[in-house]
Amino acid sequence: MSDAREDAQRYEELFQAVYLLFHRRDGKRSELPNASRAVLTHLERTGPLTVTEAARHLDRAQSVVSEIVDGLERRGLLERERDPADRRRTLVWLTDDGLACLRRDRDVLGIDALADALARLDPADRAGLLTTTAALVAAVDTRDREDRP
Known about the structure:
Pfam families: MarR_2. Keywords: DNA-binding, Transcription, Transcription regulation. The structure is a single chain. This protein is mainly α and 149 residues long. Helices cover 64% and strands 10% of the residues. Strands 1-2 form a two-stranded antiparallel sheet. It contains 8 helices and 2 strands; from the N terminus they run H-H-H-H-E-E-H-H-H-H. It has 2 domains: 71 residues, Arc Repressor Mutant, subunit A (Orthogonal Bundle), CATH 1.10.10.10; 34 residues. The protein starts with a helix and ends with a helix.
């Protein structure tokens, strides 16, 4: 019987093979500058905010965040809306295109190539792969993630 370290080394080898076979090859991975990605990601996690609130949360000057928001709004990734609780406040929120842009930005694997390969698996094997991978992710203690660089 193998120990966990040997299994980890074998999994790492398999993971490299999966990455090499299925990583995205459709050009530049991100269409977002880091600052724009930070604003979109923060809004996705927190919900609608004012530019002032976003600047405070991101520890950036309000003028800088306002400029980023203006650019993202021009691209159709964000929109401004009145706060229903206080009509004097204007909130910034993600559009459907903004959410889709974030999703594409996070994609590491080529979904079409991966789907083609998964379609060739027996449905029980495919379900087992997904269940086991989810169990592996769930097995990570959140403290382990906080300690990583």
